[in-house]
Design a protein that fits this description.
Number of helices: 3
Strand content: 25-35%
CATH architecture: 4-Layer Sandwich
Shape: globular
Order of helices and strands: EHEHEEEHEEEEE
Helix content: 10-25%
Distance between the termini: 28 Å
Radius of gyration: 14 Å
Number of strands: 10
CATH class: Alpha Beta
Number of domains: 1
Structural class: mainly beta
CATH topology: Purple Acid Phosphatase, chain A, domain 2
CATH superfamily: Metallo-dependent phosphatases
Strand order of the largest sheet: 3-2-1-9-10
């Protein structure tokens, strides 16, 4: 199973991001969507699970939860926008991965048997950070993260 992971689009969905997410079985958007049209476009690629980020304040965004639990490939994945607001122990709750955004810094880390994955920002370039999306590949009960820097 392949999960496309995107975050911090801030109302801008680049064609390069759309192309990178093609082939995903499901897309996870880790917040700061910026406009409902982003989710509408992503739904043409694969089913979308999205959460609300700190810039998602319009009426359309009220339907988005602040956190979400995704079951995929026999694993549980916890989604939230700002990792600094994590208020549970993912390993104790049975999560195999935590997907987040907010910092615009792509990152893959593992702690206490839990994969922490930030795909970076796919929207407007911030500072000198890359513009990127990611993938989670789930095979035989294991999850592996991959970052994809977009050529823009």
């Amino acid at each position: 199973m392949i999960l496309g992971v995107i975050s911090d689009t801030h109302g801008q969905l680049r064609p390069e991001a759309v192309q990178a997410l093609r082939g995903s079985d499901r897309i996870l958007h880790a917040g700061d969507v910026g406009a409902s049209e982003i989710l509408d476009t992503l739904k043409h690629i694969a089913p979308v699970t999205a959460i609300r980020g700190n810039v998602d304040t319009g009426p359309w965004a009220r339907a988005l939860p602040e956190t979400e639990v995704v079951e995929a490939g026999g694993l549980s994945i916890y989604m939230l926008h700002d990792l600094g607001r994590l208020d549970l122990k993912p390993e104790a709750a049975g999560f195999r991965a935590v997907v987040y955004g907010h910092s615009h810094q792509p990152k893959i880390a593992e702690r206490n048997g839990v994969l922490y994955f930030n795909p970076g920002s796919a929207g407007p370039r911030r500072f000198h950070l890359p513009v990127s999306v990611g993938r989670l590949r789930i095979t035989a009960g294991k999850v592996r993260a991959e970052l994809m820097e977009l050529e823009i």
